[in-house]
């Protein structure tokens, strides 16, 4: 079965096939269709949709539902994501699973509603307090808006950790053919840790407070060990025409779509270009990235100031300035032409 | 002498780190009494297995040391958001939110007000001790006028800090709450009344009737700087002047219980069915078409683009549709980009389209120069072309607005334009698939399907008569 849908709608379809029990959200362009479609679809299959009074409340509703063993999610864009950072830190601290979809727009401040990728650090480096990581997945098309939302729920419950699906205004607003999932995901086990309102789980406890410093340190050590496990097991990336390439474009999300077109355009001009696209931003797909760019000339394409390039550089042990950056900011797409020119001029 | 075990508490408070029977509360603090009243009520009602208490941040942050029920800890001020989600996703549980005055009435006031307004199935116990106890005695929303605290060292003044916030009175403006009462634990008589109110709020949850709110005046000797007896006396003599005790509302007899959920289809059942369309597979020979459609909102710009993109899906081609949106869309102009391709699509943008459909002059001015060599521009005849089209770009004009009116449906200009694109063969898609997509766009108004098919055929005939010559 296929359906022609916006990326924002594909998220909701994916969430329901993943077994999502509840959606809590607050409208914001360009993510509003996620809430709108959730308002339509969640009740249609007997699930909970509630429009919260603000994003702070949305994320805490996700926390509440997760505490009692339910699959809950929210969706927003940069300004709303800023408000959610507190709740995300608490989810990470209490080791609760939850899915947060952020459809990036241009910032800082009110900015505008057009596509940008300036919230890379906010998602990947965390805007909340404390030593924590969210798992961050970066879809590159409408199909992945659905599939990576399903994956997000799977990982959230596997590791009891918040998972961010980071999209952008193009991916949220554009329509493409979506192949519906074959079947619903199996329900994760929750009774061992969640407080589910019955005798069996009455003794479980959800909290992130450890007033005793050595206990708090122990908890931090435990979290760090979990992150190392995630880093080892959950790296995801895709390469495009990279096997024989001399030039590698590294990009995620919409920038990877533009880079893909740029690779084709460069190949037509006789330049052996290829692309590396991380599908997981945390964990960064370090191993395949290093292997792909080794001995090749690397360019980073992003719709932000170099936030993604900083990470590329970090994982190669280089200074960011040594990697050419092809970027736009403020809600303007990088064009295929711009990328081709940058590569040809170099 | 054996100590009588308090009902509903853990035997020993192991979660505090030591197997103690002492609480962390100061001597004379009201929390201990309120905890006991709550636990007794839960035990007597036999609801401990299915009760979930949201623990706040404030002095009661460690409620879970004591309450032998399900415990979940919230961030400061967020308890009502948690409680909302919990009662909605676990409707069989009894949900309690236990909060202090900073948590509920300052940082969490909006969440509280909104949850009360939605009539969440939550028993809320609001402990008003007129100060921030846990952080060491700062001013609370409930601090009395003239009362000195660490952050109102000269005494609270109405001019500078505002008046004490009367939460029961504020919530009593709302329609949804079932029960609102203010009680006190300052003496034995008041404690007995408090127990009744607490029990009432829990009964309302057992009966699934809705939001119940009990404010409890509770002495804080430590931060008042008074001994326990004098602190209790202060509550009675000072606090009750501003926060009068009583039942503000009790609709528990009339309130209807929450309806059980109805059975619904599974996601597979809900999304499945319909015509099977094969997902696209790569066919590089097809190449790609970049199409931009632009005009005024209301001219069917977005739906024309969508019809082409859908027709591509029916043809198992890759396709994408990317609209203008946001304030621009509401400003009057509208545009969308469609890519139809034999291989997975990179950029969904069409900065240099092969085909431009222009329905107004601003669109022509903005986009005509971007059309790539060998491409075409399809323009409504009313569009004044101030500049010539770029070299190598062929322009077709068509009185689509006029034709649609002549065909009886002035709004069907997009159907006319779709027929023109079909006639020109610029989408690379079969006319039948474009017609399928056209039909599909009127799925919700099936009467319009034959009407638009007819307009399509007439427009197609117009193109043959005018462009083939």
Give a quick account of the main beta sheet of chain B: strands, pairing sense, barrel closure: 7 strands, mixed
Structural class of chain A: alpha/beta
Terminal Cα span of chain A: 45 Å
Q: Give the mean pLDDT of chain A.
A: 97
CATH topology annotation of the largest domain in chain A = Rossmann fold
Greatest interface and its residue counts?
A-B, 81 and 73 residues
Helical percent range of chain B? Answer: 25-40%
Indicate the CATH class of the largest domain in chain A. Answer: Alpha Beta
| Poorly predicted regions of chain B | none
Give the strand order of the largest sheet of chain B, numbering strands 1, 2, ... along the chain.
Answer: 2-1-3-4-8-7-9
The CATH topology label of the largest domain in chain B is Rossmann fold
- Describe the global form of chain B: elongated
CATH architecture of the largest domain in chain A: 3-Layer(aba) Sandwich
Structural class of chain B: alpha/beta
Q: Tally the helices of chain B: what do you get?
A: 17
Mean pLDDT of chain B: 95
